[in-house]
Amino acid sequence: MLRIPLLAVPFSLHTDASGTAVGATSGQKDVSEIEHPLAFVSQKLTTTQCRWSTLERKAYAIVWALGRFRDLIFGSHIVIFCDHNSLQYIRESATKSAKLLRWSLTLVEFDLGIKYTKNSENVVADYLSRM
């Protein structure tokens, strides 16, 4: 069941990308630490985006999800869950890809943390990205 967001409570975003689409879900935990969904989104990738590396597609899923939920989450703490371990360090690492560098600069305006989650635990976002 979808819930109405509470702006004082931290948000969570679960993101994923496949070879053809990206998907994300936003949620919040209640007082008993049970996470409830707020919204589900997905988008098909263009032919150019389908040729990107796995890291670029997964990073795009994060940036895209933040853009889609920007009005809802801006100013709140956000925890992003993704199934690509190296994305935890996207803001700290010096990358040689202009695209990833540009996206990491986009992340600076948000109060967020990126956490790795196993693919088997990221079921909803994984399903949305597989269309």
Notable features of this structure?
131 residues, five-stranded mixed sheet, 5 helices, 5 strands
Question: In order across it, which strands form the biggest sheet?
Answer: 3-2-1-4-5
Helical content class:
25-40%
Order of helices and strands: EEEHHHEHEH
Oligomer: single chain
What is the percentage of strand-forming residues?
Answer: 25-35%
Here the CATH topology equals Nucleotidyltransferase, domain 5
According to DSSP, the number of beta strands is: 5
Most strands sheet:
5 strands, mixed
Description:
The protein has 131 residues and is of the alpha/beta class. It has one domain (11-130): Ribonuclease H-like superfamily/Ribonuclease H (Nucleotidyltransferase, domain 5), CATH 3.30.420. The protein is 31% helix and 29% strand. The mean pLDDT is 85.
Write a compact overview of the structure shown.
The protein is of the alpha/beta class and 131 residues long. The chain is built from five helices and five strands, in the order βββαααβαβα.
Secondary-structure map:
Elements: E1 11-17, E2 21-29, E3 35-44, H1 47-50, H2 54-68, H3 70-73, E4 77-82, H4 98-107, E5 111-116, H5 123-130
Parallel strand pairs: 1-4, 4-5
Antiparallel strand pairs: 1-2, 2-3
Helix pairs in contact: 2-4
